[in-house]
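User: I'm curious whether this sequence folds into something compact or stays loose and floppy. Could you predict its structure so I can see for myself?
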Amino acid sequence: MPASSIDTFLACSVMIVLVLSAMVGTSKLMTPYIRGLSNRDDPERLQQLASHILLNTGTPSNWGETQEVTPSSLGLAKADSFLPYELDIDKVSRLNSENAYALTYRELWESLGIQDVAFQIEIGTLFELSIEATSNQTQGADTVYEFEVTTKKSGMPIPANLSSYVVVENFVNNVTSSTSSNGVGSFSINVPNSVNGTTLLLVFARAQANPRMVSFNVYAFGHNSATPSPNRTFLSLSPLNYVLNVSITYSSTEILKAQVFTFNYNFSLTEKAQGNQTVEYNIPRLLDSSPMILVLTGLNGSSSFAEWVSYPQLPLQIGSDFSQSIAGAKIVSQTTIVTINFALYEVVTKWGGPT
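Assistant: Here's the prediction. I'll summarize afterward.
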C-alpha cells in the first residue's frame, strides 16, 4: 500500500476522535435510555453501551486509583477531562488480570448494572511492532547485537521512528532509528561483556504520520548467560496511581535498580516504601505521548534478572469468550480510538445477549 494511503488511514483514525467529541454530552445522558431498553438486544443499544463505559467515569469517579475500591457503576473515562474518549490510566490497568488490584469480570459485569448482556473489552496499541534478533558478534569488550523491527497495522506497513533501549544489570544503552515505507527497519546495539544475565530490548515506535500513535514491544534474551526465565518469575509488578507496587517472589531476590522508559525519556525510580517481600516506587508523571515501561533488574542468588511491566498495563483482554457463542446469538463489535496519557490506543468491545 502506498505511503499516502497509510497516512490517510492514520489521519482518518484520529479524526474519528475529534468528530465523536460532539457525542460526549449526549452519551453521558444515555443511562436512563439504555436502562429503559433492558428488554431489547438490538445493535443500537449495544453500541450505546460501548460508548457509555468509554465516555463516563463510573462511580466513584476516581475508582481506578484506589486499590480497595470496586466501582458501583462502570466507566473508564478520566475524571475532569475535556477530551472525548480520554481513559483513566489506572482504570485501564485494573482491567489487566496481571495487576494485583485487577477487577474480575464478574465485578465489572455487576458494576455495569445491566444483567441481560455479556461483554468483552480489549485494549492495545494502534499498530503492531515485532522484533527479531538477526545476529550477534563480539567486538573488543562488547557484543554487538543486530535486530530487525517491523511496524504494521492489519498487514499494512506503518513508517515509524524507533527509540530502542537495552537494559542489563545497571547498564542501559539507547539507539534511535526508523522503519522505512515498507514498515521494516534494522539497528545494532552494543552490550559490554562485563555484564551478564537476562537482557531486555525495549522498542518504542512512533508513527511518522502522527506522533501520538506509539507502539511498543519488549524482547528478552540472555547476554553471556542461558535463556532467561519468563517475565514475572521473580517479581510481580503492579502500577497504580503512579506507584509501582512490587511483590518479591523469593527471599533470595535482591533488586539492583528500578527505571522508567518512554520514547523520549529514561529515569531511575525513587523508592517510596519497603516491607517484607514488598517494595514501592514512585512513578514520575512524564509529559510524553508514549506508554511507560517500568524495568527492575536484580539478582536471585548469583543469577542476574530483568523484569518489566507497562503503564498503562497493556495489552489486555477481559470478559466473555464470544468464540464459544451459540449460533444465532447477536454479537456487536465496536472499535474506538481513545487517548491515555496523551497517546492513542484502540479499544475493541464485543457485546452480546440472548437471541
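Summary: Confidence is low (pLDDT under 50) at residues 15-33. The two ends are 40 Å apart (CA to CA).
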